[in-house]
Design brief:
7% helix; 3 domains; Jelly Rolls; 45% strand; 4 helices; single chain; globular; seven-stranded antiparallel sheet; binds manganese (II) ion; eight-stranded antiparallel sheet; mainly beta
Length: 365
Amino acid sequence: MSIEATLIAPDQLATLQAAEPVVIIDTRDADTFAAGHIPGAVNLREVFTFLAPVPLRRHKSPGRRTMRVFRRPRMKTVSHIQRNPHGHWVGDGFPVRSIFSYDDNPVAFSPFLLLDFGGPTTFEPTTKRRGVGSHPHRGFETVTIVYAGEVSHRDSTGAGGTIGPGDVQWMTAAAGIVHEEFHSEAFGRSGGPFQMVQLWVNLPARHKMAPPGYQGITAAQTPTVDLPDVNGQVAGTARLIAGSLLGAQGPAKTFTPMQVWDVQLKAGHTVTLSAPEGHTTVPLVLKGRVKTQDGAEATDAEMIVYQRAGEGVTLTAVTDTTLLWLAGEPIDEPVVGYGPFVMNSEAEIHQAFSDFQSGKMGRLG
Ligand code: MN
């Protein structure tokens, strides 16, 4: 029995065409094979750690371990770079740039509906409460990630809390919730640098009327994974909020598959990150500059929007870079939204207004 495999050395990787179906042997389960089967005994482990394994066939050698054969993933190509230099205020606490919104394009970013990048900015000390008072949501989830400053939240389920740098509020509005979002009292008093992201994640129709919920996720609860580059050096880190990588799992419970990672890349290093075939893949650069395998570049507050075909992307950090890695399975359903409600039909939007007005989404205690 033979294995259909084209063995390639790490230094040849860059010459491969994106769609070239190259087959390589992964040494993870076959270390004892490596010397005999891989030219120069190079350790391909580091190279392919992040590539989605696609087993083609298994080869059993008498007296030896099973060797798995992997196909190198096809790379996603860049659709465009998404940016919005125009900011607006949400309440009096959050100066944001809406990088994308389902209003403009309900399909391209699904399952994500909207992303507001708040800051970076600096607030003067104050005794005033800055933020957004009581308001409802229905039909989706809001995910608030704080990078600098502190945000306090209270909602009609009785949940709440204050989150600081590295912490995340994952709020499931679903059937309906009423909440408020303010700077924390302590941050108001001290003032200082402020930066956050609020991401809206759609729910499939069958979960839109699920009970509301709240996940407070602290930085300490999110596992950090080292990202190796093609030479096996540490190229950066990924802090997993949702989704899994290298056996580590982000703590957020999600209704559909997605990856939400806080990624740091070191200047000059190249990493390959896997994002499943067919998934929306839209990393947002918060600070720094990266170059894609297509040669496109993205810098502060710019989002790389990839085509859905393909199983991974390669990014080179031109400078030290912080990015929010977002990928998820699209929800192929109609999107009808109005203000704080995102449903599947006009009738459901009217119902949402009526349910809110009659107090069915609860109120703040
Ligand atoms: Mn809100």
